[in-house]
Amino acid sequence: MTKQDFVQHLFHKNRKRFSRFPDKELAERFTDDLFNLLFGSYEGRYDSAEKLTQEYQELQNTFSAILFELIRDEQLVKQHTEHFFYELPELYEALLLDAETVLKFDPAAQSIEEVLVAYPGFYATAIYRIAHQLHLQGIKTLPRILSEYAHSKTGIDIHPGAEIGSSFAIDHGTGIVIGETTVIGNHVKIYQGVTLGALNVAKELANKKRHPSIEDHVIIYSGATILGGETVVGSGSIIGGNIWLTHSVPANSVVYHKSEIHIKGKDPFPEPLNFVI
To answer: Cα(228)–Cα(231) distance, rounded to whole angstroms?
Structure first.
């Protein structure tokens, strides 16, 4: 195939393939613009509520433009836009509860403003809640674009289909994975490296519950892996670091990994087998 033939092939193939696919760069800009409008500093940006109202309307227009590329139905786009922005005040209040929870439990957090503008766990939670609302409205593809954008910026991967209750806190957060059918209750705190995943990733299980349920007031420490759609972590439980859990535990459980320490004697330390750096 010549260069020109290949270019023609790409042109026709991708034009057809992505004919009903939202503009990814525009969606990412919308994500940041919306987050900044909700939680960014207004210093030097707005000198009146009227200007803020104008930007709010511009965000609605941008959202409608993104949806139109996906749906191509003006009436349906209008309905989705109105519904999403109707739900936005409630999303905002839910996110303030998340931020207050982070401030309450993280001794390094100095103020609510610091959490809002500087904590990657809060940013990932905010974009998740926005994407989840789109998911609830039945909008395809766009929720994943938003969640993967947050993933690329924070290292935190939360599927927009997951159900997460109020006052959710992520501490540090790098490496967290929360799968599509995960259900998380209220007042749950998760540390970095936690995986809430599936025991089996077979495609035929796509419409089954594959990921665990975490009840209220649970703390999951770093590196813990909890797998399976039938796995339930009971309320008030503490899951220790580096735990591998594939079965349910009752309420108020403490699950931890017991490490052992062996002190070297005076004899030479044996050479490890298959030692590789």
So the answer is: 5
Determine how many CB atoms are found less than 10 A away from the CB of residue 84: 20
Instruction: State the alpha helices, DSSP H only, in 137-223.
Output: 142-154
Q: Among 228, 226, 183, which residue's Cα sits nearest to residue 205?
A: 228
Interval 258-270: pLDDT, tens: 777 777 776 666 6
pTM of the model: 0.88
- The set of residues, in sequence order, having a beta carbon less than 8 Å from that of 63 and lying 6+ positions away, is 30, 81, 84, 85
Closest CA to 248 of 233, 264, 237, 261: 233
- Is the pLDDT confidence value at 153 over 50? yes
CA angle 12, 15, 20 (to 5 degrees): 150
Which amino acid type is present at position 54?
Q
Residue 119 has pLDDT above 60, yes or no: yes
| Other Cβ atoms closer than 10 A to 219 | 20
Q: Give residues with Cβ within 8 angstroms of 253, minimum separation 6.
A: 233, 234, 237, 238
